[in-house]
Amino acid sequence: MANTSETRTYDALLSTTLENWAKGMEDEITTSNFFYHMLKKSNSWVPVTALGERCKFSLRYANGNADSYSNYDILDTTPMDGITAGFYDWHQLSVPIGISRMEERKNSGEFQMLDLLEEKTEQARSGILEKFNKAFLQGNGINTATAITTKYTSTINASTFFSPLALLVGQTPSANTIGSIAASNAWWQNQKSAATDTNYASFMKDLSKLRNDCTKGVNGPPTMHLCDQAIFEFYEAALRSQNQFIDYKRADIPFENILFHGAPVNWDEFMPNWSGATTVQSTTQGSWVMLHGKHIQVKYDAQTNFITSPFIRPENQDAKTAQILWYGTSGVNNRRKHGVLSDINTTLTS
Length: 350
Description:
CATH class: Alpha Beta
Structural class: alpha+beta
Order of helices and strands: HHHEEEEHHHEEEHEHEEEEEE
Largest sheet: 6 strands, mixed
Strand order of the largest sheet: 7-14-11-8-10-9
Shape: globular
Strand content: 15-25%
Helix content: 25-40%
Radius of gyration: 24 Å
Low-confidence stretches: 1-8
Distance between the termini: 77 Å
CATH topology: phage-related protein like fold
């Protein structure tokens, strides 16, 4: 009877501790990843209470037709087009935490059990953080290096995860279907430039042009910039050559970053190579992506936001497993507000 009581106590201890840990998982995601942090900061990490078959993103591709009038003129009442919707499939993500009975017995004291659970949860945390980041940046490039515009596909069960960045902000803006809308529609195309840099000055000019293209329309310029390590270091060198002060200090952003026109620039080790359409980063050229936080979002099920399932022991296994579960999707509501500068020549030295 003592053993049964001990097992029940451990189950309650494991479940309660794991539940408390999982409550902070969203903060772990958004403070460990620059992109997700900026989304949350821009109120673009959005809970949804009723999922529906697919996730709806409201889109506006034309403004209202305003006109002047005088005194008793007849006012225009013509119904306006220009509003539609994009739809993105919901996706699911899980990470297991398994503990065998032998591990329980080797860590039979309460504090030893908590130490074991801490190690297991840290392992799960690292796994889910990496999967979020790589699936967003590399898509199915995780499995096939050149599949960066395809959703990550599980090699275990063939399920897919949310839309990768290289699909949402494409190297060929008119290609593919994004959010159930064909990108052949001119109003549904992101900005795209190929770098013409022959020196640091022309590189900065290329960046400014792309930023200005992304600034057109409502809500102003890009709010965040993503690049690979080589481009980040190249940008640092360009700033130093012009005797520009490099500010790495932003109290509201827990990441080392540089600014471009007041918006933070950061690099990621999993950033793909847009022009090469591959996860393999080049040593001679790279990519810079400009994003607007109001026009790119991660939406998630408010009832399945890193929730934890109970620990369950299968009939044919001497172990118990809990799952951390997340439902959600990624999408854009105005592709024109995002852009990519590719083929940046990182071999320049002045």
